[in-house]
Known about the structure:
By secondary structure, the protein is an alpha+beta fold. The chain has helices at residues 7-13, 25-32, 36-45, 60-70, 88-98, 101-138, 143-156, and strands at residues 15-17, 20-24, 55-57, 84-86.
Amino acid sequence: xxxxxxxxxxxxxxxxxxxxKVLLDFDLxxxxxxxxxxxxxxxxxxxQRFPSDFMFQLTAAEAxxxxxxxxxxxxxxxxxxxPYAFTEQGVAMLSSVLKSPRAVKVNIAIMRAFVKLxxxxxxxxxLARKFSELEQRVGKHDEEITAIIEAIRQLxxxxxxxxxxxxxxxxxxAPRYRTRK
Length: 181
């Protein structure tokens, strides 16, 4: 069965805000095939289905941070209200509020993305725990094994993105001289 939206695409949209893994309203709306305004309108009509652990509105500071991080527009033509963040349970509740075949398919894909993210985090925690145990067993006696463990830890660490240089790059070319005949 072909997925309506690739899980990797959804996983990239998941953000951690206030210690919760959430999807923001403006990321969810295109997935469901509705406008952000209509998604929020449906949520407000069914407010009793969205307690604070299912959905919350970002504070002004959090919204401002999003503007700087992701280039969300503000002012004329932009949002007039702060975004809403939906937890995994809130996203599950959205499928019952939006009531369309697409909403059900999108919801399944989103739930799979949350599960995949949880598994990846658990795998990393387990690997880090095993390395700590190994490091304690080896102790300081064998420097070579300690160096190998440290090298593996550095490989496990998330790669730092290279910083882009500011300015123009000019290629050096040989000067062209005209010869007179």
